[in-house]
Write a structure and sequence with these properties.
Length: 551
C-alpha cells in the first residue's frame, strides 16, 4: 500500500458513518418547526406526508453512502493512481541540501577525471617527443586507451552533474515536470560541455604533412606530424572545471547567510562574483597562480607545435624563455615561431601579458595605498608638525618686529645694517608663515576623502534628526499652550456672568438688610438695636464691628 494515495483512501474508509436517524430526526424537527412558524395553516395530514418524504430521502442517501463505502473497501486491493504531491518547504529544503552535496561531489569527480586524462596526454606527448617510444608501440595504445576511458567517465559525470542541476531547478521552483527546466540556453551549455570534454587523442598512428616556411631562408619545409597534436591541445579547455570546483566549495556559495544577504541585495553568486571576491581578498596569490599556470601552459603548447620544425624548441627552457619575453612584450627576436599554431599562442601570450601587467600594477598600487587608519595617523602627524612650524613662524614675526622697533626707536644711534638684516628676517618669517598656512589648507583638502564625506553626511543626518525631534517637541508644547489659552478664554468669557450673579446676590442681601432696618425703627430703641445687630450681614469685619457696637 502506497503512502501517497491508498493510505488516504483507507483512512477515509475506516471513518465511522454518522448516525442517520438522529440527523434525520433533527432535520425533521427543524423542518416541522420552520413550517409551523412560517405557515400555521397547514393541517396535520400534510405535515405527516412531508415527514414520510424526508425520512424516505434520508434512508435512500444512507443506503447509497454504504454502497459506496463497500465499493471503496473492495477496491483497496488494487493499486490506486498516485496523486500529485506538493511537498512543503521543509521537504524542499532537505532535498536541496542533499542535491547540493551530490552536485559538489560530482563536480569534484569531474575535475579529477579531467585532470587525470590531461596528465596522461602530457605524459604520452612528452614520451613521443623524447623518442621513448613511437605511436605504434603498446605503451602509447595503453595510455591513449586510459585517456579514452577517462573521457567516457568524464562525459557520464557531466551528464549526472547537469541532471542534478535540473533537479535543483525543479526543487527551487517547485515544479513537477523536469522538461520545463530544459531551456535552449541550458541545452546549448550541456552540448558545448560534452563536445569540449569529448575531445581527446584517439589511439592510432595517423599523421599528416605540415608545411612550414622558414623565415630566414624563405624555404618551405615538410614535417610528418602526428594527428594527436590536433586533439591534444584542446584538452586544456577542460581546466574550466577547476573554476567550477572553486565556486561550489566557496564559503560564499555554501553559506546560507551569505546567500540570503546576496538575495536581498539582488546579487547572483556565480563564478564572476567568486573570482572578484578572491581577487579582493587574495590579490597577490590569485595573480601569481594565474600568471604561473598561464606561462607553463603556453610554453608547453608552444613546444608541442614547434618541436617538429625547429629542434631548438624541443628544449622546454627555450620555450619558457620565448613565452616570457612575449608575455612581457619585450621580444628580442632570437626565438621566433614558424607555425601558425605557435604564432597564435604567441599572440595570446602577448595579450594576456598586457592584461596581467595592468592587473599587477593595480594590485601593487592598492597594496602600497595607506589604509583609513594609517591615513588618519599620517594626517595627524603632518598637522601637528605644521602647527609647530606655524607657531615658530609667528614667533619669528613678532621677534623681528620687536627688534626692528628696538633698533629704530629705542636706541640713540640707529644702526642701518642691523635694521636691514632684521627687516630681511621679518619678510622671510612672513613668507614662511604664509607657506605653512598654505600647506595646512592643502592637508585639509587631502583629508576630505570619501570616507570623511560619508562620516560628515552621517553627522548631518543625526543633526537633522535631532532638529526634527526638537521641532516636534516645540509643536507639542505650542499645542498645549493653545489648549491652555482656550480654557483661559472660556473662563474669561464666563467671568461676566459670575460677576453679575454675585452682584445680584449682594443686592438681594443688601435689600433684605434695609428692610430689616426699616422694621426695627418701629420698635423700642433697645429692641431696634438688638434687631439691627441680628439683621447685620455675615462678613467678618462688619459682623465683628456690629457685635462690638452691640456690646
Amino acid at each position: 500500500m502506497k503512502a501517497s494515495g491508498a493510505l488516504a483512501i483507507s483512512f477515509k474508509q475506516l471513518q465511522k458513518p454518522s448516525p442517520v436517524r438522529n440527523d434525520t430526526a433533527s432535520d425533521i424537527s427543524r423542518h416541522i418547526s420552520y413550517d409551523s412558524k412560517s405557515n400555521s395553516e397547514k393541517n396535520a395530514s400534510a405535515i405527516g406526508a412531508e415527514v414520510r418524504t424526508v425520512v424516505h430521502m434520508r434512508e435512500k442517501a444512507h443506503a447509497n453512502s454504504q454502497a459506496s463505502h463497500v465499493i471503496k473497501v473492495e477496491n483497496t486491493d488494487e493499486e490506486p493512481e498516485p496523486a500529485p504531491q506538493h511537498h512543503h518547504i521543509g521537504y524542499r529544503l532537505g532535498q536541496r541540501k542533499v542535491l547540493a552535496e551530490q552536485r559538489r561531489k560530482i563536480a569534484d569527480l569531474c575535475c579529477l577525471s579531467a585532470l587525470f586524462g590531461l596528465i596522461l596526454m602530457i605524459v604520452e606527448t612528452e614520451c613521443n617527443i623524447a623518442d621513448v617510444y613511437t605511436k605504434a608501440d603498446v605503451p602509447s595504445y595503453v595510455i591513449k586507451g586510459l585517456i579514452t576511458l577517462s573521457t567516457l567517465v568524464l562525459l557520464v559525470l557531466i551528464g549526472l552533474y547537469h541532471a542534478v542541476e535540473v533537479k535543483l531547478f525543479v526543487v527551487d521552483n517547485c515544479i513537477e515536470d523536469w522538461r520545463i527546466a530544459m531551456s535552449w540556453v541550458r541545452v546549448v551549455q550541456i552540448g558545448a560541455e560534452l563536445v569540449i570534454c569529448s575531445i581527446h587523442p584517439p589511439p592510432g598512428t595517423c599523421t599528416f604533412p605540415w608545411y612550414v616556411e622558414n623565415i630566414k631562408t624563405l624555404e618551405w619545409k615538410k614535417a610528418d606530424v602526428p594527428l594527436d597534436i590536433i586533439f591534444s591541445l584542446p584538452m586544456f579547455s577542460r581546466l574550466y572545471l577547476i573554476i567550477r570546483v572553486l565556486l561550489l566549495h566557496s564559503k560564499l556559495f555554501t553559506d546560507a547567510s551569505s546567500r540570503s544577504i546576496g538575495a536581498l541585495n539582488k546579487i547572483t553568486f556565480n563564478t564572476r562574483f567568486v573570482l572578484k571576491t578572491l581577487m579582493t581578498i587574495f590579490p597577490g596569490t590569485v595573480m601569481g597562480l594565474f600568471m604561473l599556470s598561464l606561462w607553463i601552459i603556453c610554453a608547453w603548447t608552444f613546444r608541442a607545435c614547434e618541436n617538429f620544425h625547429d629542434p631548438l624548441f624541443k628544449n622546454f627552457l627555450n620555450t619558457l624563455y620565448m613565452v616570457a619575453i612575449t608575455f612581457l612584450s619585450v621580444g628580442y627576436g632570437d626565438f621566433v615561431p614558424h607555425t601558425y599554431c605557435g604564432r597564435t599562442i604567441s599572440v595570446i601570450s602577448g595579450l594576456m601579458g598586457a592584461g596581467c601587467t595592468a592587473l599587477v600594477v593595480a594590485v601593487i598600487a592598492r597594496k602600497l595605498e595607506l589604509t583609513r587608519a594609517e591615513k588618519h595617523v599620517h594626517n595627524f602627524m603632518l598637522e601637528s608638525q605644521l602647527n609647530k612650524k606655524l607657531k615658530d613662524a609667528a614667533a619669528n614675526v613678532l621677534r623681528e618686529t620687536w627688534l626692528i622697533y628696538k633698533y629704530t626707536r629705542i636706541v640713540k644711534r640707529v644702526n642701518g645694517r642691523k635694521v636691514r638684516a632684521h627687516q630681511r628676517k621679518f619678510l622671510h618669517a612672513i613668507q614662511l608663515l604664509r607657506l605653512v598656512k598654505l600647506k595646512q589648507r592643502k592637508l585639509a583638502d587631502q583629508a576630505n576623502s570619501l570616507t570623511d564625506f560619508a562620516k560628515t553626511t552621517a553627522q548631518v543626518h543625526d543633526i537633522v534628526g535631532e532638529l526634527r525631534s526638537a521641532q516636534e517637541n516645540s509643536n507639542h508644547r505650542i499645542k498645549n499652550i493653545e489648549r491652555s489659552l482656550q480654557s483661559l478664554q472660556a473662563q474669561i468669557d464666563a467671568l461676566p456672568q459670575a460677576v453679575a450673579r454675585i452682584m445680584a446676590e449682594k443686592q438681594t442681601s443688601t435689600s433684605s438688610f434695609l428692610s430689616a432696618n426699616d422694621a426695627s425703627l418701629q420698635n423700642s430703641p433697645k429692641d431696634r438695636r438688638d434687631a439691627a445687630c441680628m439683621a447685620l450681614p455675615k462678613p467678618m469685619s462688619s459682623a465683628q464691628s456690629s457685635f462690638d457696637s452691640c456690646g
